[in-house]
Amino acid sequence: MKSSRFARHCAGLLLGLSLAPLAPAQLSHNLSIGNPVALAMGNSITAAIRGPDAIHYNLAALALVENRYEQYKVQGAFFHHEGEVSGAGPGRTFDPMSNADFLDDPLLEGKTSRPVEVETPSVYLPFFGHSPLPFLIAPGYGFALRGGTQDQFVFANSAFAVQIFGYERDMDNVAAFNGQRFGITRLAYFNPSIGFQLAENLYIGGSIGFSWQGLGVTTRTRSVLNTVGELSALLGNLESQLGLGLDLNPNPYNDVGVLEVEAEDPLSTAFTVGLLWQPREWLSIGAAYQSEGKARMTGDYSLTYTEAFQELMQGLQPAQSVLGLMAAPSVGWANRPAQWRLTLFSPSGRRWAFRCW
């Protein structure tokens, strides 16, 4: 009898597994939160989270804290990234076949591609900016305690890194044109939260989060391909038809200089609400909503030109009246006021935008 019952259970389990749809799991998302159970379950922990980490995953679970809960944690990570650069990069709009001088990228050294790697992690922090580290590290703290006239509420707060990633490589690295140094960080430093029991086996919670968002980029830059291609063709016509004798030979591989951008928003807000229903000890159903975190970042940027590029701009001065490329007789537009806007999208769908003057 026991054997036949076990066989029926196994058959039912196999049938259920064969009919169940695939459950998507996010293996790289929320890594910096540092909850081992959530990471092991691919962040599918909305109905099972406990403790102050519920502030991020499902605030309703705070109501299950009996007395006081306090946690300290530090997590570290090592990473090694390998890739390659090639001459067929995305965004190429100028056809190099129209000019034989544009066929070979000097950075590729006659090859179709070259391997690149990143071994040095770096984080972008408030007050310190880019900070190279031997490995990535993300500390965290949180507490939850009961309060109210009948201890019906659970109040909590936590500080953690919602997003922290960065790297740094040598300036002479071939991949420095795709970012010599990069760092993006979102630190949730104040998250007042509350959770309570709404009805029998039904819990609810809410939170308002205050975060610091920062972005730092340093990259070598080269000429815009289609712009340089059109400029090269136009200069060729001017030399042949007007006899200017510019002898500039611009190409898409001119090293323009080094672009540095640093921006931050010290007060970026968001809110989270959660619901938890636990009709049985072995069954919990949870739902949570996290609002988008908008960050209007302001900061500084600088573009340091190479001597070769400055000579190229100075060489264009004889064609100034024809091309209208410059508004002043000297190359002084490096200090000209500029305005730009950058919009950044995260994998979770959040969007950050900032302006700089």
State the CATH architecture. Beta Barrel
Radius of gyration: 28 Å
| Topology, number of strands | 15
Indicate the overall shape. elongated
Number of helices: 6
Question: Strand portion, in percent?
Answer: 35-45%
Element pattern in H and E: HHHEEEEEEEEEEHEEEHHEE
* Structural domain tally: 1
Instruction: Estimate the helix proportion, in percent.
Output: 10-25%
CATH topology: Porin
Termini separation comes to: 80 Å
Report the average pLDDT across residues.
77
> Which CATH class?
Mainly Beta
Give the CATH superfamily: Outer membrane protein transport protein (OMPP1/FadL/TodX)
- Outline the low-pLDDT stretches: 88-94, 325-357
User: Which sheet architecture does the biggest sheet show?
Assistant: 13 strands, mixed
Q: Quickly give the structural class.
A: alpha+beta
